Every structure is written in C-alpha cells, then in structure tokens.
Amino acid sequence: MTTNHKPASRLCSILANLLQRAEANPGQPVQTRLTNNLQIDLKVAGTVVMLLISRSDVFPSECEWRTVLRHWPYPVQAVPTQVDRPIRKYLKAYWPLQKHLDLNLETNSA
To answer: How many Å apart are CA 12 and CA 103, to the nearest integer?
Structure first.
C-alpha cells in the first residue's frame, strides 16, 4: 500500500516544521531546500518572523512567494523585497509572530 501526499500538504508540513525549529531556537536562522532548488530561510527573533526564499541564479517568482505564504501555518500577507547577493537572489519579508492553533487540543467531554 502506498501513500500519496499532495505537494501542498507536504509544503505545509515542511513550513510548520521550519517554523517550529525557528521558534525553538530564537535568533538562529533555520533553512531547508526544496526539490525544485528553492531555498527557504527563516528566523524568529522576539515577536518578529523573517522569511527569505532564494535561488542561486534567478530571483524566485511572485508565484513561488504566494505559494509559500498560502501554505504558511497561519494566515500571512507580506510583500517581499528583493535582495541581490553575489551568491543568491532573495525575496525577503518580516511580519509579527502569531501563535498558531494547536489542532491536537483535547476537547471537553460532557
């Protein structure tokens, strides 16, 4: 028996894990590289989230940016700025850290 995971649900899981790692290590950057060679860097400092998505040769597309935000663990709207470095080309944004819902909360029994 095989399990087919939709790419979207896999991205949700990757981003939730990345955010959890960043929250557990405040001020320390965490990163992952997706199969399409898109790199995601994340840092949580205090009450601020910094997200960067990048490629080595070209800027990530606006569609890629929207896809990452659409699969973020909680609703986010952020307009990225471009950061052009000799080694990588980034889209970068900051927003306030929000506490996301824990879907595994116990329910009250009557």
So the answer is: 14
Domains annotated on the chain, with CATH:
7-96 (3.40.1720)
pLDDT digits (tens, 9 = 90+) for 62-96: 999 999 999 999 999 999 999 999 999 999 999 99
Closest-CA residue to 50 (of 9, 85, 90, 89)? 90
**What residues have CB less than 8 Å from 35, skipping those under 6 apart?**
none
Residue 72: is it exposed, middle or buried by C-beta count within 10 angstroms (0-12/13-18/19+)? buried
Q: Which tokens sit at 47?
A: 């009450």
Whether the model clears a pTM of 0.85, i.e. scores above it, the answer is no
